[in-house]
TrEMBL record:
InterPro entries, A to Z: DNA-bd_dom_put_sf, IF2_N
N-terminal signal peptide: none
Tree of life domain: Bacteria
Name this protein carries in UniProt: Initiation factor IF2
Length: 37
């Protein structure tokens, strides 16, 4: 399993971190900070 942070994942997707966090929250994923793997 990979330890990619939300911040790294957002960079790979070329999307703002806040947008990705919002989308993850809407999908039921409980990540609240960009640095949490």
């Amino acid at each position: 399993m990979s330890n990619t942070t939300v911040e790294q994942f957002a960079a790979e997707l070329k999307r703002p971190v806040e947008d990705l966090l919002k989308q993850l929250k809407e999908a039921g994923v409980s990540k609240t900070a960009a640095a949490i793997p």
